[in-house]
Backbone:
């Protein structure tokens, strides 16, 4: 796992929208930080900058002390796991093949990819023998979300980015996925940036919470306990 540093990070879109103000914060290696705030406060924009889908207008992002803009974007993206709301599994590929996506891009040999895919499916609680050969539409929403997590972790990323990973599933399944995810995180200890607008989820999952507001400003950055005791 790697540390993440945002230094006076800002993003203004070409139309003049200030999506991210002037944000400085540090995420320690192995820490799960939640970005929370109302719609339009810049959460997705921060994730997109971390993933180098878009470039900052000002400031810097460092991963393990290295400026991400000085690295090759494609290489970097392969070292960053990404989980989105509706997973985005490839519909015409089996579950096992989906989980092996990044290892394949990295040129791992077939045996190693298969073994790794099965290991990850086990880790997220899906029996690889039963589910590995199925296709995404043959799984429930909650199961697909677990496959999304398995795929994001397959190549042992430095950092895991999660954009409302549990919001598309119904509330009962969501609670279970959150619990399972906490024990998974205790085992793998990834550095995670997770976006949500669900305060319960933020408190439950976050080691620290970054509260964002209007104009993409950082209003608070604290542990859940400190946030709750400081109204
Ligand atoms: P959030 O994820 O917190 O809902 P976003 O990062 O998606 O916020 O958006 C932050 C602000 O930037 C919003 O005002 C949004 O309308 C605007 N925005 C997002 N993407 C673009 C874009 N490509 N061009 C212009 N404005 C954008
Ligand atoms: P999210 O917060 O999940 O990104 P949005 O509805 O804010 O959802 O944005 C969906 C897509 O539309 C994003 O890819 C974003 O870049 C783009 N977008 C959002 N707001 C604007 C905007 N004002 N102008 C242009 N593109 C935008």
Residues:
């Amino acid at each position: 796992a790697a540390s993440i540093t945002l230094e006076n990070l800002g993003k203004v879109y070409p139309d003049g929208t200030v999506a991210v103000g002037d944000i400085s914060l540090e995420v320690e290696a192995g820490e799960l930080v939640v970005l929370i705030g109302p719609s339009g406060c810049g959460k997705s924009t921060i994730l997109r900058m971390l993933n180098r889908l878009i470039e900052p207008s000002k400031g810097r992002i460092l991963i393990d002390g290295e400026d991400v803009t000085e690295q090759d974007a494609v290489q970097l993206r392969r070292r960053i796991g990404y989980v989105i709301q509706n997973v985005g599994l490839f519909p015409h590929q089996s579950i096992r093949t989906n989980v092996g996506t990044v290892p394949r891009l990295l040129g791992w040999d077939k045996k190693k990819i298969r073994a790794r895919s099965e290991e990850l499916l086990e880790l997220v609680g899906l029996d690889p023998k039963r589910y590995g050969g199925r296709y995404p539409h043959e799984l429930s929403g909650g199961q697909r979300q677990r496959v999304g997590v398995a795929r994001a972790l397959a190549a042992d990323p430095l950092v895991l980015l999660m954009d409302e990973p549990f919001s598309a599933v119904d509330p009962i399944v969501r609670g279970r996925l959150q619990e399972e995810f906490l024990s998974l995180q205790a085992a793998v200890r990834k550095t995670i940036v997770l976006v949500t607008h669900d305060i319960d989820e933020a408190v439950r999952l976050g080691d620290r919470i970054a509260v964002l507001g209007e104009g993409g400003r950082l209003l608070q950055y604290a542990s859940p306990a400190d946030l709750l005791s400081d109204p």
The first helix runs from residue 43 to 50. The chain has ten helices and ten strands.
